[in-house]
Target: LL-diaminopimelate aminotransferase
Amino acid sequence: MPKLNENYRKLKDSYLFAEIAHRTAAYMEKHSDQSLIRLGIGDVTRPLCHCAVQALHEGADEMGRAETFKGYGPEQGYEETRRAIADYYKKNGVELNLADIFISDGAKSDTGNITELFGKGNVILIPDPVYPVYVDSNIMCGNEVTYISGNAENDFLPLPNENQHADIIYICSPNNPTGACYNREQLKIWVDYARRHEAVILFDAAYEAFISDPSLPRSIYEIEGAKQCAIEFCSLSKTAGFTGTRCGYTIVPEELVFPDSTGEEMSLNAMWNRRQSTKYNGTSYIVQKAAAAVFSEEGQKECEENLSYYKKNAKVIADTLRDLHIPFYGGIHSPYIWFECPRGMDSWECFDYLLQEIQVVGTPGAGFGENGRNYFRLTSFGTYEKTVEAMNRFRSLFA
Ligand code: MLT
Model:
């Protein structure tokens, strides 16, 4: 009989977005005549940009010809894609070695899998509220988690407490779910803290493309000293509409070196390389070709148009909440709007209320942590028409 990983018993029954899908499907089964508006999971609605589609076609054609066919690719990713990413970072003044860059199928997998590089007994700091994958992936391997509180008092941007030691620190900026974004000084405080405590920061930059203020850092490596203490995860899902196409990347700088229990140095880059070459066969060639096209000048212009579209939706949501005097965060450097549940509801009550009364699906804040229990998240990734319609329904419900 196999001995099972009983840490799974400590997880909630289902993953947040699976639970939302389940509750929504159950409601729609009984009310199939109603028109539902989904502003829950952060899934995009704009199609892939023309450059990416063209690259997918070309890639498919290459795969169909013996002379250009490709079998297994490098586990770390094709050089062309890694070079395109390095050039993208260079625009923000960040120099990366190609060996620091690992192409993957998205930030969710890598932020989940990264736990494998660390041993037991680490002090793991995770903000509350935050993207649930960080907590769940640590629970799955039996790790204890220490929460740092994001709340209205600190604008959902917690800073380190010098009296609290940490070995591993998760940061997501712009934050999912609150939309809050650290500025340069605040990120520097985290980097300095991590270096003093010899900790590693796991920095999720999946929403960096939404940052519209050039003074805000899009990568943690814009902060001096970060290469010595941080791994960065990023994704094309939200930037370029790759939620269904799947491509992300993780930066593990060669400078990231820590002593093992005997004092001998181990390189996180070498460990991640070993992990990926053992357990991952690389993102498909055609998808990587499309990813490289996204970083071309034309690709970036096309992505910017889609980002502007979503930002316009975010403004529609923000304007409505402001008019209704519902306090909210985010929506400027982020596709997410995080608001206080009206009428004293908790977040799952608010979910059911919005579903039943106006058929708008959002995400209950409790799914992102204890501190989210009275908050609710809406995404601006819907279509403009549906976003406007959802907000008209809000106005009639909460006026
Ligand atoms: C979200 O809605 O929080 C995201 O879409 C989840 C994800 O990126 O996996």
Q: What stands out?
A: The radius of gyration is 21 Å.
